[in-house]
Design brief:
2 copies of one chain form a homodimer.
Chain A (H helix, E strand, L loop, with lengths): L6 E7 L9 E4 L3 E10 L5 E9 L6 E4 L1 E4 L2 E7 L4 E11 L1 H12 L7 H13 L6 H14 L4 H8 L2 H8 L8 E2 L4 E6 L6 E5 L15 H13 L4 E4 L47 H13 L3 E6 L2 E2 L4 H5 L15 E3 L2 E3 L3 E2 L7 H17 L4 E5 L6 H14 L4 E5 L4 H10 L3 E3 L8 H13 L8 E2 L10 H21 L2 E5 L38 H13 L9 E4 L6 E7 L6 E7 L6 E6 L13 E5 L5 E4 L3 E6 L6 E7 L13
Parallel strand pairs in A: 2-10, 11-12, 11-22, 12-13, 13-18, 18-19, 19-20, 20-21
Antiparallel strand pairs in A: 1-3, 3-7, 4-5, 4-8, 6-7, 8-9, 8-10, 14-17, 15-16, 23-24, 24-25, 25-30, 26-29, 27-28, 27-30
Helix pairs in contact in A: 1-2, 2-3, 6-7, 9-10, 13-14
Amino acid sequence: MDGRRRVVIEGIKPEIDGGLFPIKRTVGEKVRVEADVFADGHDAVRCQLLYRKKGQTEWTLTQMSHVVNDRWEGMFYVTELGTYEYTVQAWVDKFLSWHHGIVKKIPAAQDSSVDFLVGANLLESVLENASASDQILLKAWAAALRSNQLDQMRQCALDEQLVLTMLKYPSPSPVSVYHRTLNVHVDREKARFSAWYELFPRSCAAEVGRHGTFKDCEARLPYVAGMGFDVLYLPPIHPIGRTHRKGRNNSVTPTPDDPGSPWAIGSEEGGHKAIHSDLGTLEDFRSLVRKAGELGLEVALDLAYQCTPDHPYVKSHPEWFRRRPDGTIQYAENPPKKYQDIYPIDFETEKWSQLWEELKSVVLFWMDQGVKIFRVDNPHTKAFLFWEWLIAEIHKVDPEVIFLSEAFTRPKVMYRLAKLGFTQSYTYFAWRNTKWELTEYFQELTQGEVREYFRPNLWPNTPDILTEYLQIGGRPAFMSRLVLAATLGPNYGIYGPAFELCENRPLVRGKEEYLDSEKYEIRHWDLARPDSLRDLIARINSIRKSNPALQSNDRLVFLPVDNEQLIAHAKTTEDLSNVILVVVNLDCHYKQSGWIDLPLAKLGLEADHPFQVHDLLTDARYFWHGSRNYIELNPHVLPAHILRVRRRVRTEQDFDYFM
Amino acid sequence: MDGRRRVVIEGIKPEIDGGLFPIKRTVGEKVRVEADVFADGHDAVRCQLLYRKKGQTEWTLTQMSHVVNDRWEGMFYVTELGTYEYTVQAWVDKFLSWHHGIVKKIPAAQDSSVDFLVGANLLESVLENASASDQILLKAWAAALRSNQLDQMRQCALDEQLVLTMLKYPSPSPVSVYHRTLNVHVDREKARFSAWYELFPRSCAAEVGRHGTFKDCEARLPYVAGMGFDVLYLPPIHPIGRTHRKGRNNSVTPTPDDPGSPWAIGSEEGGHKAIHSDLGTLEDFRSLVRKAGELGLEVALDLAYQCTPDHPYVKSHPEWFRRRPDGTIQYAENPPKKYQDIYPIDFETEKWSQLWEELKSVVLFWMDQGVKIFRVDNPHTKAFLFWEWLIAEIHKVDPEVIFLSEAFTRPKVMYRLAKLGFTQSYTYFAWRNTKWELTEYFQELTQGEVREYFRPNLWPNTPDILTEYLQIGGRPAFMSRLVLAATLGPNYGIYGPAFELCENRPLVRGKEEYLDSEKYEIRHWDLARPDSLRDLIARINSIRKSNPALQSNDRLVFLPVDNEQLIAHAKTTEDLSNVILVVVNLDCHYKQSGWIDLPLAKLGLEADHPFQVHDLLTDARYFWHGSRNYIELNPHVLPAHILRVRRRVRTEQDFDYFM
């Protein structure tokens, strides 16, 4: 130990659970690091942020600067996929300490020759590290400081160039290094910015009643791509079990024709690496992945680690299932609910290690077919340690793989799954309807520490979730929830065509299951219906693509509106070159109006200059002036504005003759 | 690694800087620990808090209980000086999970024999760990569960005694243990609750003009003890340097008679282990320590690691001082201020290790003379690593030693010194005068994480600090600041007799130095002055001793009063057996009145019962009813109430004939 290290480094942010987990970024993003850094006494401290790609031995150093109250900040960009490391180092800088003193002594006429000699010594102590040209400068300055000519010594000490040069060559001094190295996990851009579309391939047939195939799904691709989505997520595509198969509307008395739930995985035909024969072949699937890619759509598969009683694992690996004293396998239950068609995998099995390897091989198998995105079904009902291991293992093979966590459960469980490695996560968005609920929740997601590792993916509906808001609000509700999902976060998704066709008939009023749910039957959708939201969706996805403010989870600000039914938020790029204001009428029935309060400075606006807001949904333009502006939204026409702020409003002074 | 561990443990509180520093407690205090604990799925989790005295190999286990939102809590008491360790462990409990299921299945009539067989197996799996009597019970229950008689099986499964018995014998299951062991530093009670009195022994002579001695100081002991203090803190008692000695009122042109500042330590007569010859001998000092002890007063010494040019270290250890190019030693300076009478010790010396040992030997020397409390002068101008080492080393020798940090500097520096080991710390209290300032600051000190390691010691004045509030406010200000210091925190101190005699003449208006400061001259105080606050101080210290609510830094609550000049706070014991309300008039000139709002439930009061508040300062009693009550305080009489709440107000129903 070197007892001469005088600088303390603490309170580093971001740092998740004392460095146990990495923060997350995508390629090209910035990492801003803060730390409390201070020394005893009043000597000058210098502080550097160190970072490197994991595996490199050399650190890159960047200067940190003092903000206030011993808080320092620095930043770096991550430019490659994988893991980066960062930490902070600092030291008492002898030259700067001397310089701070002498610039105070000179005006007080307290400077004496010996003070300048101290400076000369410091200059000479770094000579050997200096570049040839700097050596010449430093020698000249040292000579001036030794000249014993007060004017010359003072002039030299006050020379800004001297300080800038000396900053390059820290005076040798014991350096304190923060006691932990922290990690950044860097994903590809789609981890941060994506638009998902979920559909059931078996409902894609052109003719009513036929089981759709991957070929039918291929024919649907232009429709999906045309709406501007970039991820096509398919529910499980594997053979469906026969034992205890569910019928229409979740009935336990199916007819022989009922196709069953895709999540009831496994039959005699195969398990998690097999394809349901009615959908086509593995080659058909590969073709779908390829064709989708040509249209800018990546296929995401569902990773649902559970088995029907007919799954091959049940015979080949009975040790992966928990048996009861009567020899039967314990089906899934959450008493008094029973799921006799599902055998949960027993993660407490003695053979956990072989189990983990097999489950990993499932992911690798589909990666071999070109899949790089997995939507993980109910990860919170499988072991945390397994996911942490699996995701790390897969990222060793391909760091581009994205895992979306479908954990609708308690908040700390959801956050833990994100910390341990899930790329994106479903959220409570579907159930946040009022202004207060939305504001509270999105402030938690975007302003707390969770934003460093939890990437929300906002879904207004899923095959399991038809919210009461959509049931009651109808088409205006679908429109307003769409705008909220697509603008409150950079990642969002819809379950279609139910969504664009505003499917809102519940099985039972007050519950969230769909009537005639696609989970249990093949549906035929009339995509050409005139009331489809298809064009609105296309418009919104296009707006998202051309406005970088909407492509990041940073800088979300809620704006005051004097009407509880109107919610307004702003998103901006860091340089304010792109400023988007979104206003949504949460009332699905009545026109609402109110006054919005803009934080002008935060949006790069001046109080005394008019500005234009351009509604990217309708192409209407409004001239606004000052912070308070009027909003009126009719839900039966369009319950939202997505306004791009354009700062420049032309005036007569723009004409040549005014120059 | 055991991949079957399914429980996550995170977010433990208290945990300082990821476990880098211990929390602090005193003997007999409670440690309340919280953690987020959860497993995948919906199995039942059990959670235990583990603790032990450091050095023991066995942990003591206590149950933690679920609060809300996956948050668990548990507690233990520390009963010995030194260091305790704690951590948390948890597991998925098979029996409890089964029990949670069966109690839901039974009312739904979904229970089947096999369910009860599962239970029987679980009972039998813990048989070998069970006590003989529990074995009998468990065997009987297992038989009942195997009976295949539905009534009998159900009755057994619902037997509360079964659950209580099984809780004693956790079903074997992989256990997750939190990845860190956290520490508690346990001090003696005085670290938590103390009243300090600072005086200059050289001003204790009975006759005007004579240099006081330890003998004179002995004569002063009954006066100090009579006011109820328990720590007598002496400024440095060492030989004072001659070179650049300061004269009266900090003059740089002293007369030969000027005694100099006690903080200018070291002369040819000796340094930090020597005694100023005018004060007496080492034996006199020992006698003072002994006599003080007999009166319940512990002597605290000043630890000021700095040297005058005449200090023996300057000759014997020139390498401990930084030399300038002209061979002179760099005196202390904070340009443009110069302190030519002080040579700072160079903690960056190559010989830091020998230096540390010598400085440690100073502490050990005075410990040998019976001193166990050190007030450390300006610790923030010496190396942090040194203090961390020194305090740990001393506590190895004697864990009773108390170090008070006199660091009036930036907040993070003060908090770091507390984290690294200082027992108590000076605060910004002296400069917090308005209701808002006091409220904000004391909420930070008592409700944030700092309360786990930073023990405030509140001083309304010191020899360096005569606040503007005291200068302007005069005697009422001294009274109100006294009450605030003595009740806002369990540790406080005054610099006397300047304080009780309301000395408030500044050297320069607008600065904080005293006119005719005792730092530079011998003062003679007229202790018998009729306006002395001596009796008030005695009363307040007596109130502190008999009211445990005032002996802890926990449970401070500010109460709303509808007058900005009145500040009110409550302190309570955890069981509410002692409830103290303090109201202070911050206006030193005018009578102020207002209505105070009491949080009745928090204070153990009922809205519909009158209660009595007993002013412990004046012995007056008031009958109050409900939450809003009237307060009026005249600063020229007494600017404060210290009210003890007495819940019981006698009524006619207390008479026998009402029974």
